[in-house]
Write a structure and sequence with these properties.
Radius of gyration: 18 Å
Helix content: 40-55%
Largest sheet: 5 strands, parallel
Order of helices and strands: EHEHEHEHEHHHHHHH
CATH topology of the largest domain: Rossmann fold
Distance between the termini: 39 Å
Shape: globular
Number of helices: 11
Strand content: 5-15%
Number of strands: 5
Number of domains: 2
CATH class of the largest domain: Alpha Beta
């Protein structure tokens, strides 16, 4: 008997009960996603994360009427492998950029259509960054101009990559997981992990998100349309 496909397990963090319930009903209309828990405060969310493993966390950036940006690093550390999707009513690309720099994998506006939220959840679960193009463009500009090194050292980093490592970077930017990359390149998952460790070391990045942003900024991968 074929096993049922794994559902994406979510934690929703929002201080308003009606919003939490509304999000839960909206999200669970999609068969591939399950709202495993809901929290009204950051403290409550951290307690839940300590007891249960989640694939993705939806965080209202206006939690309790105040900015929850400063909570993102703490949430990211506690949630370990769970990806963070920020939800906001503010059309401010600087805030969106800051959320991603602090550890969120994407930002969705509260007035966007329901299918956009579902698509963002699915894309972020697969390892992709979800941002409006204006905010992503700003993020890439900051990434490429921040502490900018002379051209030669930067090019030296990129030229140190092997062709196989460049292929892995392209597939990471497409949102593929290690298992999918291994199948695409006909190599083992262990080999993919070794390639990633080498890439992180050579480029001076610490995780997949930084690698994706670096790849877009330095034209190692094409930014999604």
């Amino acid at each position: 008997m074929k096993a049922a496909p794994k559902k994406i397990h979510l934690l929703i963090i929002d201080d308003q009960l009606v919003v939490r319930e509304g999000l839960r009903m909206l999200i669970e209309n999609h068969p591939g996603i399950k709202v495993a828990a809901m929290a009204s405060t950051g403290t409550e969310a951290l307690e839940m994360i300590g007891r249960e493993k989640f694939d993705l966390v939806i965080l209202n950036l206006e939690l309790g009427g105040q900015s929850a940006l400063s909570f993102i690093p703490q949430l990211r550390e506690a949630a370990n492998t769970a990806r963070i999707l920020a939800l906001t009513g503010l059309r401010d690309s600087d805030i969106h950029q800051k959320a991603v720099q602090l550890g969120a994998m994407g930002v969705v506006l509260k007035d966007e259509a329901a299918d956009r939220l579902i698509k963002a959840i699915e894309k972020i679960y697969l390892g992709e960054v979800w941002l409006e193009r204006a905010a992503l463009g700003t993020l890439l500009w900051h990434m490429s101009s921040r502490d900018k090194e002379p051209l030669d050292p930067q090019m030296k980093k990129i030229s140190s990559l092997t062709e196989r490592e460049k292929q892995v970077i392209v597939l990471i930017a497409e949102g593929l997981k290690n298992k999918q990359i291994a199948a695409r390149l006909f190599i083992s998952q262990t080999t993919v992990t070794h390639h990633l460790s080498s890439i992180y070391s050579k480029l001076g990045v610490s995780d997949r998100l930084e690698l994706v942003v670096y790849a877009f900024a330095n034209k190692l991968a094409q930014m999604p349309q």
